[in-house]
Each structure stands twice: as C-alpha cells, then as structure tokens.
Specification:
Beta-Lactamase; Heat Shock Protein 90; five-stranded mixed beta sheet; 9 strands
Amino acid sequence: MRFRTKTILGVALIQALLLPLVVMSALHNLRQANEEELEQQVQLAGRLIAASARDAVISEDLATLDGIVAEVMAAHQFDYLRILDSSGRTLAAAGHPPAGPFHTDQRVAEVTDGSLDWEEAINVAGLPYGRLQLGLSTRRLEQALAEAWRWALGLLAMEMGLVALFSWLLGSHLVRQLIALRDASLRFASGELDHRVAELGNDELAETARAFNTMARQLGESHRQLSSEVSQRQEAQEALARANADLRRFAEISAHHLQEPTRRLTSFAQRLHSRLAGRLEDEEANLSLEFIVQGANRLRALVRDVQLYLAASEPRGEPASLNPDGVVQGVLERLAPQIRSSGAQIDLASLPPLPIDPPRLTDLLLALFDNALRYRQPERPLRIALSVGEGGAGRLQLQLCDNGHGIPAEYRERVFRVFERLQPGGPDAGTGLGLALARRIVESCGGSIHLTESSGGGTTVVIDLPNRTHT
C-alpha cells in the first residue's frame, strides 16, 4: 500500500474517530454555556424586576405594577410575568403563567414546557411583601442548538471529504504548514487573539489556515462580545449595589429624623402623665394615659434600636485601644437598676482584647445582659455568668449563661430575626431587635453567634470571634 494511501486511510480513520467526539464535546459545552447564561439571565432579571417593583408592591400601586410588567414583557423574551402579594393574590400579570402550584426550574434541564420558570421573593428588611414569577422561553435556545447540530454534522461530513481529497497533497508542505499552525495556535492560546496564519497556496493546509483564521476571528468577536456582556452585568450589579446603599441611607436618615419627634412625644407624654396621674376620676382615662406613655416609650426604644441596628455593621472606634473589662463594668452600671430589682448574681471573667470597637461592644453586651435580666424565672434567683475560652485555631469564644426561661431548640435560630420575640408583648417587652443587633455586630467582626441550653435550664449565648492575641 502506497504512502499516500496510508496517509489518506490513517488520517481518515483518525478523523472518523476523534472529530465526532470533538464536535459532540463542543456542542455539549455550547449547550451548557448557553443554559448557564439563560439561567443567570432569568435570575438577574428576577432580582432587577423585583427591586424595581418593591415600592409599588408595598403600596399596592397596581398602575405602576402594570406599567412595569408591560414594559418588561415588551423588552424581553418572557412567556409570562406575574407579581403577587404576600398572601398569593395576583397584583399584575401578563402572558400565560402556568396553572396550579408554581414550580421553580433550578436548571434549564428541568424545563418540560419550553419555559424556564423562576420565582423571586420581594422582601424589605427581611420581611416578605410579595413574589415575582416569570418564565423565560427556551425555544430559541433549542432551535439554535438544533441548527448547531445540523451545521456540525454538515461540517463533519465536509471535513471528512476534504481529508480524503487533499491528503494526497501533504508531502513537503505538511511539516512546514503544520509548524506554522502549531505556532499560531500557541500564540492564540497565549492571548494574541489578533494573530493570523499566512494563507499560502490553495491546498488543504491553506484551507486549514483559512479555517483557523476564520475561527480566530469568530473567537475574537465572541471574546469581545462576552467582555461587553460581562461589563454590562457588572454595571447592573453596581447599579443594584448603589440602590441598596441608597435604601440603607434612606433608612438611616429616616430613623435619625424620627428620633427628635419621638423624644418630644415621650417627654410630653411623661409630663402629661405626671401632672394628671391621680387627678382624673375616670379610670378609663387614667388607663389611656398609661397606654400613651407606654406607647411613646416603646416608640422611642424602637427608633433607638433601629438606629443601632443600621449602624451595627460599621466600626465606631479603634479595637486596638479597647479595654473589654472596662466596657463590661460600664454596661453593668447602666443596668444597675434592673440588676438590683431582679437580685441577679453576676459572675465575670476577665476578657482578652477583642476585635470589636468599644461602642459596638457596649451595644452587644447591653443587648445580651438585658435579655438575660428581662426573661428570668421569677421563682428562682437569677444567675448570669460571662466566661471566655479557646474556640479553635486563632479563635476565642465568649459565653453568656443564665438560668432564665430558656429557648426551645426549634426557636434558637428564629430569635435572631429582626423584630422576632417569643414572649407576648407588654409594657416590659423588648423591641425584638436585641439578638438581631448582636448577630449583625458579631458577623461584621468576622465572628458567629448561636444559642444553646445552659446547665441550669436557661440559655447560653455562644460568640466565636477572631483572637487578636493569636500569632
């Protein structure tokens, strides 16, 4: 058998074995990349639409919601878009949403009806106000992949024909041209996307060089297009971050401006109570006066705790100059009336330097000690112990134990939510922000906080923090 025949058969056999695998792998990667892009597109669209519709959902501004839905449906390839309130009532809808229970498609591979279904929660400060449901059509993706398969099979057949036809011309040009292609591939792989191969002659190697150049141009265009899309997504993420920052700033400013009228309301309510207490013969009027004072005090406490919560993630001092024991003593002095009235026995361990600035450490300890004093067992003396220990490599652990009511295991994570209280409201009830504030402070310092049951049947607050003295 002649060398050229062997060359034709050998190359043809290699192409017949390897090229289909390469094509199938490329098509698989193409499908996977397009599916991931589609999934990211529907998730990003869900977050952006939910953010733009949040205020309208809260105020139930149906006209604005209808406008948002119409604008989104006109600008995007959505099969449907539906906005519901927290009770499941439809506020605005367009397209043909699925009937029956809504099922979110986590991946395009789960789609069975030609529509990628996605649901986005509409929350404000952790509280649910509604849901956004949308469906992104996958039919164009399937059509494009089917067309890619047809093109791939056509190109595969053409490639096999070209191999059989032009293998006769390999000879002396083979090594020279292959080296040129090899060098060009290496330069292209190293990032020289504008590099091209010299197209010499009209043989199969010249065709391969032209195919390489075509591929390089297409890949370069794809790379530029992908870079543009990445830039657009980054801009969208930055816009969302700015919107979140503006929302947080608005909340901080609102809480600040509410502080003064709240203080005045509390002051005048207490003044009115001091002047009229015992002088009114109407018991209902006396009771109403008590409720006014209690409500004013609670409102002032809420505004104060909201301000503390909003500022809890940012340092308000330098941890390096911290004297933890002095901070603890300052907290106990502020809580001295409650400690005396409860008859609490408090055991304190000396604390090492902590990665928390003094103002936030004060807020943290005030919240934890206040909870322990507030939710005690009336029938037994209250005991509170603050201890410190090693929490692992480069960590330390603080524990605040009490023998109070205790918290059932199923509620020990729930109580860290904002405005979450297990005890019924009353004149002595807290604002529901204490543990949420504590978690926000601890996590902003690189730590964690959780609850366990103490040996006396009460609650142990466990705080894990980086150890500043560890080397």
